[in-house]
Design a protein that fits this description.
Elements lengths: L1 H17 L7 H37 L2 H6 L1 H11 L11 H37 L2 H17 L16 H50 L1
Helix pairs in contact: 1-2, 1-7, 4-5, 5-6, 6-7
């Protein structure tokens, strides 16, 4: 019975989401609100049971004196963060927000540099070694011209208005072509993934319909 109920709910929600093809309607909004509510509840449950309780509450209740002392700062920051819900006390939560933004920015930048930029440079050099002259030249020109496209430095000569370096300008135009090709390939990949997901959901709908027909 539980499997049949879950199958029926999945069928109704899938139809409700697909109803957006006919325009914005109540069924689609109900499905979206349900999805947002379930996602928010799941995230809150994970935060409480996987972070707050084992990392803050339980150590404060059962930990040693040293552990409790180290947990005072996170506890104070959490308490100050709650004051952001009040218009009159919201300023007290600025240190907590600053700490969150600073740590988040540091983690993001560090992850981008160490996990993305350096590996990409190393992979590009290894790719150039294993390619022929023509393929390696295309990769080199594409990489340099794409980086040149994001160069916005200008030089002023006398009374003339600031202008881009002609070489950087030409390389930027070439880089724009490579960027357009890359975005086109990415768009095709996203479209194919969405099409595959649509076909999979249609297959699920057909199988659910067959199950409901045989059961009911």
């Amino acid at each position: 019975m539980s499997e049949l109920l879950g199958t029926l709910i999945g069928f109704v929600l899938t139809i409700a989401v697909f109803s957006y093809l006919l325009g914005d309607n109540l069924l689609f909004r109900l499905a979206i609100y349900l999805f947002i509510g379930v996602a928010a509840g799941y995230a809150a449950a994970l935060a409480v049971f996987n972070v707050l309780l084992p990392q803050l509450v339980f150590p404060l209740m059962e930990g040693s004196g040293t552990q409790r002392l180290f947990l005072l700062l996170p506890l104070v920051l959490c308490a100050l963060l709650l004051t952001k819900m009040s218009s009159s006390l919201g300023r007290l939560g600025n240190p907590s927000m600053g700490f969150l933004v600073g740590v988040g920015a540091a983690v993001t930048i560090g992850g981008s540099v160490v996990g993305t930029l350096f590996p990409q440079v190393a992979a590009s050099t290894q790719t150039l070694r294993g390619m022929g002259v023509l393929n390696g030249l295309v990769v080199l020109v594409g990489t340099v011209s794409t980086l040149a496209y994001f160069h916005f430095g200008m030089r002023s000569r006398g009374e003339q208005p600031p202008m881009l370096n002609p070489v950087a300008d030409v390389l930027g135009d070439i880089g724009q072509v490579f960027i357009a090709i890359t975005l086109g390939v990415l768009f095709v990949g996203v479209y194919l993934a969405a099409l595959a997901a649509f076909i999979e959901r249609m297959d699920v709908l057909l199988s659910i319909w067959q199950t409901l027909k045989t059961t009911l």
